[in-house]
UniProtKB/TrEMBL annotation:
The keyword Membrane does not apply. This is Uncharacterized protein. GO terms for molecular function: nucleic acid binding; protein methyltransferase activity. Gene3D superfamilies: Vaccinia Virus protein VP39.
Length: 364
């Protein structure tokens, strides 16, 4: 989570620049969603750009003028942000500009007809585009909040201020779950829990791996996160499989009689006094509740670890994300030392960058 999430070119990789239709496989039409499985929140305010109707338009010269202005602003950043706090450099900002255009410009048959008359159909007006790009450069507002979504695994998840932007390394938790359920098919039919679900990334991805009887309960203390998660769950048609509940860690599970077969969590794990030094996009804009893991970053991890021992079914699987290295080692020592006999096969798993990021194992 600490890593610079704004330096990846994943978006570009998944969606070649030859097509503006990168959302061809949109899971469900946007429309109105009565939000939430259990949480009673509704999806907040601004609709992600790619889900908005194309009710705006601009002439080619007008759009080009905006694009030239935005590119100039991006180039003026040079390596400044990178050098000051590992933020985005001009190259990355220029790529983001391209992605923003892909989200905003409509590219369908009707649009082609309009284009013939020199008009481009847009999902946001030019005035808004000028304002959004200023926010990106001048306020360091994360690109994902600007467009309202993040590409994560094979999903396009809606996000907004108040909910953590899911990070690429967290995708690996789903791989760990997939490994386990491939070995033990029964796990596809049991109950999974995702504690601190944020945008619902893990719950949606795991929900899609389960068979009919399998389900996921996702919890989050933040009403905004719970509501965004429920929105994403519904957008992927998983509302009968993934239940989003508002509340602190295990509390929303009190009425659940079934013992879960699996638990995943990417809890806040940044030591509180390190947050100020993070990249401006993170420190200024992402929710503190999603980042701050207390004095040494371990508060939530230890709490979840203790709870998992009593919550999970014997043989139940867990995978936890940590800040890496020392935190992973500390957690393994805790599970095999103070909590000896409660877990087995506890191991540290590295992320793709080689950081000892995850701790996984089984309940005894
Ligand atoms: C690091 S974010 C992870 C979000 C998501 N799982 C992901 O990987 O993108 C941690 C999440 O834990 C939630 N959280 C913080 N304290 C919590 C608590 N006491 N109970 C439940 N969730 C909590 C935050 O709101 C945030 O959504």
């Amino acid at each position: 989570m600490m890593r610079n999430c704004f330096s990846s070119s994943i978006r570009q990789t998944l969606y070649p620049s030859t097509s503006l239709f990168k959302y061809l496989q949109k899971p469900h039409p946007a429309k109105s969603f009565p939000i939430s499985s259990s949480s009673s929140c509704s999806f907040p305010t601004t609709t992600p750009l790619f889900l908005r109707p194309p009710i705006h338009s601009a002439s080619f010269p007008e759009l080009k003028k905006w694009q030239d202005w935005a590119k100039h602003l991006a180039l003026s950043v040079g390596p400044k942000f990178l050098e000051s706090d590992n933020g985005p450099d001009a190259d990355l900002l220029c790529r983001e500009l391209k992605w923003l255009l892909e989200d905003v410009v409509v590219d369908d048959e009707n649009a082609t007809a309009s284009a013939a008359s020199g008009v481009v159909k847009l999902r946001a007006g030019l005035e808004e585009l000028y304002a959004l790009w200023r926010q990106r450069i001048e306020e360091r507002r994360p690109f994902q909040y600007l467009v309202g979504c993040e590409h994560w695994r094979d999903l396009v998840l809606c996000v907004r201020e108040g909910v953590l932007i899911p990070r690429p390394e967290t995708e690996q938790i789903v791989d760990l779950v997939e490994e386990v359920i491939c070995e033990d098919g029964g796990m596809r039919e049991g109950l999974w829990v995702d504690l601190g679900t944020g945008s619902g990334a893990l719950s949606v991805a795991i929900g899609r791996l389960l068979l009919d009887a399998g389900r996921v309960i996702a919890t989050d203390l933040s009403p905004i996160a719970a509501s965004v998660a429920a929105f994403n769950v519904r957008r992927y048609g998983l509302q009968d499989k993934v239940d989003v509940r508002l509340g602190s860690w295990f509390e929303p599970l009190q009425d659940v009689n079934e013992k879960p077969v699996g638990l995943v969590s990417n809890p806040p794990y940044i030591p509180g006094d390190h947050i100020f030094g993070l990249q401006a996009e993170v420190a200024r804009h992402e929710p503190r509740i999603a980042l701050d893991g207390g004095k040494n970053g371990m508060d939530a991890l230890l709490h979840i670890c203790e709870g998992a021992a009593t919550l999970l079914k014997p043989g139940g699987f867990f995978a936890l994300e940590t800040n890496g290295e020392k935190q992973s080692e500390f957690l393994v020592d805790f599970m095999t030392g103070k909590m000896k006999g409660r877990f087995r096969d506890v191991r540290v798993v590295s992320d793709f960058a080689g950081v000892h990021r995850f701790v996984s194992g089984f309940c005894c």
